[in-house]
Amino acid sequence: MSLNWKEINLILSELDLPGSQIQKVYQSAYDVLTLQLFKGRSFLLLIALTPGACRLHETFQSAVKGSRPLRFAEFCKSRIINGWIEEAFQLGDNRIVRLTIRQGKNRYHCYLRLWSNAANVIVTDETGTVLDAMRRSPKRGEISGGHYEPADGATGAATTGGTAAGSAAAVPKKEYSVRELPGPGSFNQRIDAWYAEHGGALSLEALREQARRSYEGSMGRLELALERLRAKEAEYEAADRLKEYGDIIMANLAQIKTGDSWLEAENFYAGGTIRIKLDPKKKGAAQAEAYYEQYRKAKNGFADVQGEIAAGEAELSRLRETLGSLLRETNPLVLHLRLKNKGPKSGVNPGLKPTAAADRKRPGLSFRRKDWLIIVGRDAAENDALLRRHVKGRDMWLHVRDFPGSYVFIKQRSGKTVPLDILLDAGNLALFYSKGRNNGEADLFYTEVKFLRRAKNGPKGLVLPTQEKNLHIKADSERLKELEKCRIEK
């Protein structure tokens, strides 16, 4: 719950703010402002506009900087930093605190309105002209150039001698008292500890539960993906048996007739007899070739699956360690920022955004150009790895015609069409990393990844495009120099 007016008065009396100098301003979130003050000692004044937890009090947690500069904090730094608080009091019992701040020759009023449904911090000049507000509200006039000047002891609403006009009798006034909070120390110390544990959206309890839900969901999805990969690994481990089936079929071609569903023959590898399933529509040699093809795929896929499992297990371990670190955090503002800016991101789980760690794990070269990610595979192995694990159906694929060279991919952005400028960037990279670079120009294929199909029995990474378009590229050295500046270092 928010502070009542008696609690606000007790907090102000304990702090004795007049005579304090404002040294720093921090805005860790859109509704949390912290002033670093000095009056014989350095201390932090927390102002929170959080619904259900509106308050001001000294905080004994460390000051938290926001992930990026926020507008109101920058305004405060230009107006009130190094200013002195000349007076600090509540206007009557209406939960509006006025700080009068002098900075050089200028004097400002800073109003802290601690109402759960309309909390705000408003800075005005001495005439009441609004200079800025933490929450801008044009309808209320709480915007630069508006007017805000609540009367001492009144909410600003018209009254007639304490009885509402037209009412038969005054509405009884609710009685408030200062809460009895557990723990030692001043009321500021106890209220800071209480809100840290129970203070609504920024309480440790709520934030820790949010962290659990977020990370445990990601870990659950990753564990399911690992189970599927381990099942595939078990299948691939039996690859040698597929080759044996092919050899036994080839040794018994004379016994196989079109339409047979099974072959029962001597197992010259393990001894005894063996039954091998056949495709009734295929002839004997084709039956053996089908098993040999499965064997080749299994052998090639086994190493890839093992790599994916290792990466998945490493990511799962990272998520567990990060969650443990979040749950051990005792400062709710720090925890709030960590959840906001450093959520469970992964280079393995396809449902999550790539991180710097994912950039390091991705093979090939990566370039970040105008918020578009361009990836270059430098050889067949990197091309194949990118196709298998790092690109999706709507991503764009480019490759130089008639020359061996790199695959270049442009990662798709939701709701965006690849602009010509980015297409030319990718085309120049495709030409530069190909055998045709000395020609200075070349024609390129480009199409979406979903229109690629692997060449049957072809070398690793070889694909055949469909619905491809043509792009003629002339080498542009200036463009390549600009791209080199955008390269993501690993």
CATH architecture verdict of the largest domain = Roll
Mean residue pLDDT: 83
Poorly predicted tracts of residues:
154-169, 345-356
Give the helix proportion (percent range): 25-40%
| Rg computed from alpha carbons, rounded to a whole number of angstroms | 34 Å
Structural class: alpha+beta
Largest sheet: 6 strands, antiparallel
CATH superfamily of the largest domain: ibrinogen binding protein from staphylococcus aureus domain
Broad shape: elongated
Q: Determine the CATH topology of the largest domain.
A: ibrinogen binding protein from staphylococcus aureus fold
Biggest sheet: strand arrangement:
12-13-15-14-16-19
Describe this structure in words.
By secondary structure, this protein is an alpha+beta fold. It has three domains: 5-153 and 182-199, ibrinogen binding protein from staphylococcus aureus fold (Roll); 205-341; 362-485, no CATH class. The chain has eleven helices and 19 strands. It has a six-stranded antiparallel β-sheet with strand order 12-13-15-14-16-19. A five-stranded antiparallel β-sheet has the order 5-6-7-8-9, covered by helices on one side. A hairpin with an 8-residue loop joins strand 17 and strand 18 (463-465). The longest helix has 45 residues, at 284-328. The protein is elongated and about 105 Å long.
